[in-house]
Design brief:
147 residues; mainly alpha; Arc Repressor Mutant, subunit A; 2 domains; 9 helices; 0% strand
């Protein structure tokens, strides 16, 4: 009997994650930390591997820095986009505790709209602690591009 309800189509409709789904996702990751996303998603009904990965990587990871962005981070992000273009996974290496979406959103909502050369006005305040995460030659290349 056809009820007009197609479960395959229903499962593809975008729905916000519910608190109980977040809990199931966290538990699945705790139980199978080396599991693949399709395997993790098998524990959360009506959710795809990509949805689970995106939810974890952008919202639920315990190490995500949700604090306000500092001036130093804004300057660094502006320079990384100048150097690497919009290669967000490459740029993410300089912001390991920021979610991918947060990095892109910060750039498009704040930094790309600032006046050109804003970083030169505040370069004296720039902290080079962010370069400690990268190799010496790469840090030298970046610093030479900035200065």
């Amino acid at each position: 009997m056809n009820t007009g309800f197609d479960e395959k189509i229903y499962s593809r409709i975008r729905k916000p994650f519910q608190p109980h789904e977040d809990l199931m996702l966290k538990r699945a990751i705790l139980m199978y930390p080396c599991g693949t996303w399709p395997m993790i998603a098998s524990f959360i009904p009506n959710r795809t591997a990509r949805q689970c990965r995106d939810r974890w990587m952008n919202y639920l990871r315990p190490d995500i820095d949700k604090n306000d962005w500092s001036l130093e981070e804004d300057i660094l992000l502006d320079h990384m986009v100048h150097i690497y273009g919009f290669k967000w996974s490459r740029i993410h290496e300089f912001f390991p505790n920021r979610a991918y979406n947060d990095i892109k959103n910060r750039y498009y909502s704040k930094i790309s709209k600032r006046k050109p050369g804003f970083e030169k006005d505040c370069l004296m305040e720039f902290s080079f602690e962010y370069f400690e995460r990268c190799e010496t030659k790469e840090a030298d290349d970046i610093l030479s591009a900035i200065l």
